[in-house]
Write a structure and sequence with these properties.
heterodimer; A: about 160 residues; alpha/beta; Glutaredoxin; 5-stranded mixed beta sheet; two-stranded antiparallel ribbon; 5 helices; 7 strands; globular; B: about 70 residues
Chain lengths: ~160, ~70
């Protein structure tokens, strides 16, 4: 009787975890675009190198990262590089105010309920995932400092050279 | 006996304790969520307190910050 109860409890409390580390396929999702309202996902960018950036208006380092990523994206867009930002503000107005101050040209998707970060198991904010042309995670960047940019740039260029 | 175990297990599942995920820290970052209304005053108080105590830390609520550490 106790054995059966324990067995049932272990089934009840087990949970699926989506591990999202380097080398694994990036978990898929579909979120509305802030500007167009259309739902978009990573499948839209297959064949391109994608820098998936999870950010929020309350995240300090994001004030540095967004403009610098915008510069990199505009530089390498023609070569097949895109930055896809997922905003995790629970109040979207905060995100809009932030973007007025730090405007970007790349797509910003909205996830106010925070459904997607659980799939990616974000260790902190901001966290970014560099995804190669085949849709696999090439590297994970937690936090952001200006000194990270040259390394990110080199990684992106390396992935762009891949078939 | 079984009833007791069932009740304990039921209570365990009702726990309201949860960890705040890094991306859920938006509300904790708001000014109104800080302990004291004036940041400079609390910084000064902290400095005086820790200098006199000869130790430091423990002043803020757990779960603040960007979640990287």
């Amino acid at each position: 009787m106790i054995k059966r109860a324990l067995f049932a409890a272990s089934i009840a409390f087990s949970s699926l975890t989506f591990a999202a580390g380097a080398g694994e396929p990036a978990p898929s999702f579909s979120l509305p675009n802030l500007v167009t309202g259309k739902s978009m996902g990573l499948s839209h960018y297959k064949g391109r190198v994608v820098y998936l950036d999870f950010w929020a208006s309350w995240c300090g380092p994001c004030r540095e990262s967004l403009p610098q990523l915008n510069t990199l994206r505009n530089e390498l867009k023609r070569k097949g590089f895109e930055v896809v930002a997922v905003n995790l503000d629970e109040n979207t107005e905060d995100a809009k105010a932030f973007l007025k101050q730090f405007p970007v040209d790349y797509p910003v998707l909205l996830d106010p309920e925070g459904r997607v970060p659980g799939k990616y198991e974000l260790p902190g904010m901001p966290t970014s995932f560099l995804i190669d042309k085949r849709g696999n995670i090439a590297s994970v960047h937690v936090g952001f400092k200006s000194e990270d940019m040259p390394k990110i740039r080199d990684e992106v260029i390396g992935l762009l050279r891949q078939r | 006996m079984m009833k007791l175990i069932a009740v304990v297990m039921a209570i365990a599942t009702l726990s309201a304790c949860t960890t705040v995920k890094p991306w859920e820290r938006g509300y904790l970052a708001k000014d109104t969520m800080q302990g004291a209304p004036i940041a400079q005053k609390s910084a000064l108080d902290r400095h005086v307190y820790f200098a006199k105590e000869g130790s430091s830390g423990g002043g803020q609520a757990a779960g603040g910050g960007c979640g990287c550490n």
